[in-house]
Amino acid sequence: MAEPLLTTTGLTRRFTSGGGLLRRPRSMTAVRDVTLAIPRGSVTGVVGESGCGKSTLARLVLRLIEPSQGRVGFDGADLTALPAGELRRMRRRMQMVFQDPYSSLDPRYTIAEVLAEPFRVQGERVSRDAIDHLLSQVGLAAPMAAAYPHQLSGGQRQRVGVARALALKPDFVVLDEPTASLDVSIQAQIVALLERLKSELGLTYMFISHDLGLVRYFCDRILVMYLGAVVEELPSTEAAPRHPYTRALLDSTFSPDPALRRRLVALKGEIPSPFDLPRGCAFAGRCPHATAHCRDQRPELAGEAGGHRVACFHPL
Amino acid sequence: MSIATSTRHHGVAWRDVAVLRALRTPKGALAGGWIILVVLAAVFAPLLTPYAYDLQSLKEAYQPPSAAHWLGTDEFGRDLLTRLLYGGRTSLSVSGIAIGVSVFVGMVLGAAAGYFGKRFDQMIMVAVDLTWSFPEILVALMLVAIIGPGITGTLVAIGVAYLAQFTRLTRAQIMAIKSETYVEAARSLGASHARVLTGHLLPNALAPVLVSGMLATGDAIILEATLGFFGLGAQPPTPSWGAMMSSGTALLFKAPWIIIFPGLAVAITVVAINIYGDALIRALDIRTRLRAA
Amino acid sequence: MTALLTVADMQVTIGPVTPLDGIGFTLDRGEILGLVGESGSGKSLTAMAIMGLLPLSGGRVSAGSIRFDGTELTSLGEDAYRQLRGKRIAFISQNPMTALDPLQTIGAQVDVIGTLHFGKSRAEARRRTLEVLTQLRIPEAAAICASYPHQLSGGMKQRIVIAMALAGEPDLIIADEPTTALDVTVQAQIIHLLAELVRERGMALLLITHDMGVVAQCCDRVAVLYAGRLAEAAAIDPLFAAPAHPYTQALIACIPRDDTRKGTLAGIPGTVPAVSAYPPGCRYHPRCPQAQDICRTTVPDSRPRPSGVVACHFPGPTNG
């Protein structure tokens, strides 16, 4: 088996917040002990709800924020130990598409300037042709280059965001909920675009989303996160979920088919605050199968046959 | 102070037009017109009057407004209009330069504090808040007491008195813009701190800070006049609006024009700056951003 | 028997433009109607028209009728309308974060419905509030009443907004994308809760959404809007089994299912045209893969279908 493009080992990030004269700062672990490997040419989905740490994980693997513990390996190099200059050169190869196409483009830049920035940052000259080529790659007309972001629709802006990520011809692109703020019709357009670009350019994706249905369609492998930790890794989209949370996520996904209408609400309650996590399994409070053991001890992510890993004392 | 210059390299940005758009309302046009008039009058003062500002003629003292002396003469027989024009030079240039430097330094400090945060931020903000906790006039008086009366003292006094305002505003803007995704996007491309600051943060933070600088210039004219009134500003025979009013107080009933005209000049100019500033805020649509600070 | 709400041939004009034209559907008690379409298709404007809130954006219903429980709403005065809104017609907005006043306790905000619309005393209103919160399965209702919006999670806030809507014991609830701001597991809870309440109490729910998945999950009937016109209306099962309008087909195809093969999700090319740039003929023709010459020139009439209507020159077969 070929060496994976990106690996993380025990990746952990803690944040402290608040704290002043009278209050003690509170700390939370946004990402806890994540170890994963992303094979070349694959689409790895990271799925979870708000506060599960998926966006923090995205920023950690690109070293946009520094880990509290753990390492990130990219194509054999230790990304976490790279000095600033080398990291900047490495950034050419790993890029990101952001969630909100409205705030991810500087309102004062024309589209041409947005697309020129990657080259300028890396100290390169930009040709008009390069901009036109990028625009056509993402299905936008060349005259769009002179427009300002506020003149574009959400879908068009996100295409610009994709084009910017492709400008430096990266190997690896992190897609941080690129369709979450778009209409479903535009979401499908963007996903189709990302699929086409992947096969044309041989990209490797890490796709972050809260929509398990979309992830199951788009990705080859799926990591499910809950409150900072990976609770299940599915080696393929066909693999049946074994963690009760993954099951619940799947049951919360609405298929466009009235015959598949859910009769029961999958889950009760909401995600607890990451600032005061229970001692045992973070999901125990909402889990229909939780036992005293679950509330007392935290299950480890344990490997099973075929690369299926699950962190649960009572897997389904 | 032009907001247009800073954005010119970005082509015809909406801000370019805003400076002119603020002139489109009747109030904005009137206020802007007065400001232009005062600035032109100050610049071309030597061409506009046949008299010299320090030409004394005791036998012409205390003359009321007439055809020869449109605004009358003062206690030394100097032409009041001439002194008003030259006084405008002092008042406007001292306030303008002091505020200009203050805005610049405030933006540098505020950007550094807002962008790098942590201990750097604490150090800068403690120093800045120290001046913020006294009224501007007190800060200015203290500084003039240390440096000594005169134009240099006034410049430093005004500049420092308003520094906290610009530093705080810039810092708040930078901190807000820092969390915009396009800043993170630039960093993910490998952009350096300097590039992020000059390419994204400062250009987007500029408009509110410059407008607040413009409004502060109005206040600064009053502060300059106040220092002049106490004899701490520009020293005789250099005219300034404040000093002219000061000498007029003793003669309020004998020759009221000596105090009335410089007083009117200060009042109308300051009001005009405020009205035009408000029009500019509307034209730039930055009301909420100014309040956020 | 006539339906609770009947919108017929409704046209809405704002200044020189006509963003809505020929909108018609019915909604009965105990029923959930999904009003579906992309941003800019006119869903929210339709809701505004029913709520009588068009004057806020300078618009008016320029033709057609909106009948609510026997009353013609298009000719209703503002005072009479105010009696309806909040009491007989309730609205649930997309963003629970902005629908609540940050400076008032939850209890006070829900109580107002009782004191304002039913002339109840404050104690009575609070009793009713606690009752409604309990019905919404909100644990520790009394504690929630005493808290402020910022102390609650997004899902809980949306429940409170629903409670405010229910407190008026409305006949009709209009919900504009009530779950888009929520986590998926919470979205499922809220959708089920709404559906259950509507059926139990015999209320009517007009659910505005762009997500065919949500529609399939809880609606009884669907009205699909495109660029200010009704594209298709039908009962839920036939609509999903054999969508007749190409736009309905495309909207359904936007959501991947378990059996969707990789690389086959396409989305709908292009975007909804702006009101000022509605094309002639069928407004969907520039994006429609099946468009013929007649589609570019002639507006398709609404044709009856076994369980509804479709406005297309070449509708799909009735049996999928």
From TrEMBL, chain A:
Domain of life: Bacteria
Cell compartment(s), UniProt: Cell inner membrane
Record-level Gene Ontology MF annotations: ATP binding; ATP hydrolysis activity
Membrane topology: Peripheral membrane protein
Record-level GO BP terms: peptide transport; transmembrane transport
InterPro entries: AAA+_ATPase (IPR003593), ABC_transp_ATP-bind (IPR050319), ABC_transporter-like_ATP-bd (IPR003439), ABC_transporter-like_CS (IPR017871), Oligopep_ABC_C (IPR013563), P-loop_NTPase (IPR027417)
SMART domains: AAA (SM00382)
PANTHER family: TRANSPORT ATP-BINDING PROTEIN
Family, as annotated: Belongs to the ABC transporter superfamily.
Protein name stated in the entry: Peptide ABC transporter ATP-binding protein
Species assigned in the record: Aestuariivirga litoralis
TrEMBL record, chain B:
GO biological process per UniProt: transmembrane transport
SUPFAM superfamilies to which the protein is assigned, alphabetical: MetI-like (SSF161098)
Protein's cellular compartments: Cell membrane
Record has rRNA processing as a keyword: no
Membrane topology summary: Multi-pass membrane protein
Record field: transmembrane: 31-53, 92-117, 137-164, 255-277
InterPro entries: BP-dependent_transpt_permease, MetI-like, MetI-like_sf, OppC_N
Keyword entries, A-Z: Cell membrane, Membrane, Transmembrane, Transmembrane helix, Transport
CC terms in the record's Gene Ontology section: plasma membrane
Annotated ranges, domain ABC transmembrane type-1: 88-277
Entry keyword Transcription regulation: no
UniProt record similarity statement: Belongs to the binding-protein-dependent transport system permease family.
UniProt protein name: ABC transporter permease
Organism, scientific name: Aestuariivirga litoralis
Source taxonomy: Bacteria, Pseudomonadati, Pseudomonadota, Alphaproteobacteria, Hyphomicrobiales
Automatic annotation (TrEMBL), chain C:
One matching Pfam family: oligo_HPY
Gene Ontology molecular functions: ATP binding; ATP hydrolysis activity
Keywords: ATP-binding, Cell membrane, Membrane, Nucleotide-binding, Transport
Domain of life: Bacteria
One Gene Ontology biological process: peptide transport
Keyword Repeat included in the entry's annotation: no
Chief localisation class: membrane
InterPro entries xrefs: AAA+_ATPase, ABC_Ni/Peptide_Import, ABC_transporter-like_ATP-bd, ABC_transporter-like_CS, Oligopep_ABC_C, P-loop_NTPase
Keyword Transport carried by entry: yes
Protein topology in the membrane: Peripheral membrane protein
GO CC annotations on file: plasma membrane
Gene3D superfamilies according to UniProt: P-loop containing nucleotide triphosphate hydrolases
Subcellular location(s) of the protein: Cell inner membrane
Domain called ABC transporter: residue spans: 5-252
SMART domains: AAA
Family: Belongs to the ABC transporter superfamily.
Record NCBIfam families: oligo_HPY (TIGR01727)
Protein name: ABC transporter ATP-binding protein
Lineage, opening ranks: Bacteria, Pseudomonadati, Pseudomonadota, Alphaproteobacteria, Hyphomicrobiales
